[in-house]
Every structure is written in C-alpha cells, then in structure tokens.
Write a structure and sequence with these properties.
- The protein is mainly α and 313 residues long.
- Helix content is 73%, strand content 0%.
- 35% of the residues are buried.
Length: 313
Amino acid sequence: MNETVGETGHGLFSDRPRSPWADVLRQFRSHGGAVAGVVILGLLVLAVLVGPFLWRLDPAFIEPKATDMFKMRNLAPSLAHPFGTDQLGRDQLARMLAGGRVSLAVGFVAMLISLFIGTTVGVLAGYVRWLDGPLMRLTDLFLALPLLPLLLVMVMLFRDALASVLGPEAGAFLLIVGAIGLTSWMQAARIVRGDVLALKEREFVLAARSIGTPPHLIVLHHILPNVISPIMVAATLGFASAIITESALSFLGLGFPPDFPTWGRLLFEGVEYMQADPNRVLFPGVAISLTVLSINYIGDGLRDALDPRLRRR
C-alpha cells in the first residue's frame, strides 16, 4: 500500500497545476522570431543606454577652429570614428547612440499615451451601451483624418509656443509624443471594444453582476485582466508605429531641433550626402528597421503566447 501511495504521490494527482504565465512563457519561447526580436531589441536598448558611457565623445561637439572643423567633415568610418562624421565634423556613432535614446523614448511614451486612451475608449464603448455609439463615431472620425498632415499641422501650430515655455528639446519631445499618442489610439480602442462586448456576456461577468458587484469593480477585476492579450499586442504595434511616425516627422525636418539628434533626423541630414557617403543613411536606416522588425516579431509572439487555444497544443 505504501509503495502504491508513493507512486501515486509522484503521478498525475499530486502535480501542482502549472501557472498560466509559465505556459505563456513556454509558448513565447517556442516562437523563434519573437525570441530573436527580444534579443535584437535588447541589444539595441542596451547599446543606446550603456553606449554613451563607453563611447564618451560628445554628439554635439564641433571643432572650434574652422580649419579643424573642415578637416573633420564627412570622414569615412575609421577606428577613431567607427560610423564616420557628419557635415559639421560631429561623431556619427555618438549621434546614433544619442538619437536612439530619443527615438526609443518617443516610441515608448507615445505608445503609453495611445494605449491608455485606446483602452479607456474601448472599455467604455464595449461595457456602457449608451456610450458605444458616440465613442465609436469619434473613433471613426479620427480614423478618417489623414494622420501625417494632421501631425504636421499640430507641430507647426504648437512647436514655437511649447518651445518658449519648456525649451526647444522638452517642448519638442512633449509635442511629438502627445501628437503621436493622440492620433494613434483608434486601433487599440476597436480591438478592446470587440473583446469587451464578448466578455461582458460571459457567465463569470453575469454572476458578478447578479451579486451586486459595482460596474467599476467588474471592469477592473473581470474585464481588464481578460483583455491583456489584445492590449499587449496593440502596445507592440503602437511602439513600432510611433518610432516610424517620429522618424517621418524628423525626416521632413519638423521633428526635434537640428542639434537634438534622432534616427529620423540623422536620415534627414544624410540624404544630401547619400551618394558620396551611403553610411550616413545606412546606419540610422538599419537601426530603425531592426527596431521596428523586432517589435513586430515580439507582437506576433505575444499574440500566439496569450492565445489559450494555441497553448493547448
């Protein structure tokens, strides 16, 4: 009898149930593209955060003497300047590292703003019936607006006013992230609304409502935890979209000031010298492409890992 109990103790009935997050992690690790995306994005983030402490050249340094500055202009990649120099003799590697911090920060903060607005609108539209029509028509209105011209108008209208109050760098950062966040929440709102409409008719939500649970507690404890999957996928897509949008604005010369580098700004400055020195556009272009591609692969992996139907396989 003891042997039977001992064997049973190591069998099926004594095993503790696996954590859902362990299943999510296992499914995510099985997605090769997502794992590669995490590695590439992690290396890029590590480079822009730690790189300036290792490569100590000032990204804004210009030789004070005109003759020295002229000698340092548009140098090819070398040991002293691995990415070369720009038209003013500034080190391109230092500017790439500084620009990466700004571009990633813009993408992250703009993503948080758009995700907060989109989740709030989606939950309210899906759960509160009388708000569904007005909020969805507002979403349709924003979707019908041309994004890039709208961003250009916002930048032109508010750039000088914010720069005079907060300074050119802080004012431009606040304007760019606010403009991108306020014009990119619509997809997240539609995705979250669709899931909330299905969830609010599920048995556990009806049971919570039948025992008198307040609506805000139902949303916090029962609705939001079950829409984490689309929210996280929307977050990755919003992050990538924000980086591309900021790069487009900087490429058009309407982003940050010229002495405040971003990857898009480096592309804009390098277009004039692209034929003579392709590295001027190659390095920031590859950085933007790798970042966006890795984030998209991470989003695909999260979508698969958070889908319970795939975790059963």
